[in-house]
Design brief:
This protein is of the alpha/beta class and about 200 residues long. Helix content is about 35%, strand content about 25%. It has helices spanning about 10-20, 40-50, 65-80, 95-100, 120-125, 160-185; strands at about 1-5, 30-35, 55, 80-85, 105-110, 130-140, 150-155, 190, 195-199. It binds 5-O-phosphono-beta-D-ribofuranosylamine (GRF). 5-O-phosphono-beta-D-ribofuranosylamine (GRF) binds near residues 10 and 173.
Length: about 200
């Protein structure tokens, strides 16, 4: 499985995927890493590891389409089977998504469809849910909305704040992303309606 990773920040999910590949737990090759933020710690790490690492700063382009064209150009050279968004803080246009239908994955720090959008962990604490978690899903043209590959539940404790909950969810994110990619790499799958079925 040829895998491209798009990130904007810390890159701990990228790191978890990298480590899984290194220890032979994930049959994938990371063929390129792209960040829209020049200072992202994740892209610095990608460079250190020797990956084909690209900064494509959205601020350097006149509009979304021009930025995406450059991302597409780099992806075209890397020829990924799947694109993993790992803290990539840019919405993808419908035409971008269409081009890679059911080949773009995202991870979100809640049990979707609860708490889409930013600050999902703070939303969960504020709402008072007793269980939250994370979701790995295919990306469609709507925010945090595509068919679900893997979910992990995380109990919310009475003394949790957004920060402590986020830390426990993040541990599960790292396992969930590797699990989802591993399933795509090794199993047959199909989509029926919104359901991703592994066979
Ligand atoms: C994660 O919480 C992920 O669920 C969300 O953005 C965060 C990225 O963290 N989409 P990292 O950059 O992978 O450490």
């Amino acid at each position: 499985m040829r895998l491209a990773i798009l990130l904007s920040g810390r890159g701990s999910n990228f790191q978890a995927i990298h480590e899984a590949v290194q220890r032979g737990a994930l049959a994938a090759e990371i063929v390129c890493v792209i960040s829209n933020r020049p200072g992202a710690p994740g892209i610095q790490r990608a460079r250190e590891y020797g990956y084909d690492a690209h900064v494509i700063d959205h601020k350097a382009f006149p509009n979304r389409a021009a930025h995406e064209d450059e991302v597409l150009r780099v992806l075209g050279g890397a020829r990924p089977d799947f694109i993993a968004l790992a803290g990539y803080m840019r919405l993808l246009s419908a035409s971008f998504v269409e081009r890679f239908r059911h080949r773009i994955l995202n991870i979100h720090p809640s049990l979707l469809p609860a708490f889409p959008g930013v600050d999902a962990q703070a939303q969960a604490v504020a709402y008072g849910v007793k269980v939250s978690g994370c979701t790995v899903h295919f990306v469609d043209e709507h925010l945090d909305a595509g068919p679900i590959l893997v979910q992990r539940a995380v109990p919310v404790r009475d003394d949790d704040d957004a920060h402590t909950l986020a830390a426990r969810i993040l541990e599960q994110e790292h396992e969930a992303y590797v699990e989802a990619l591993g399933k795509l790499a090794t199993m047959q799958w199909k989509i029926e309606g919104r359901r991703v079925l592994f066979t």
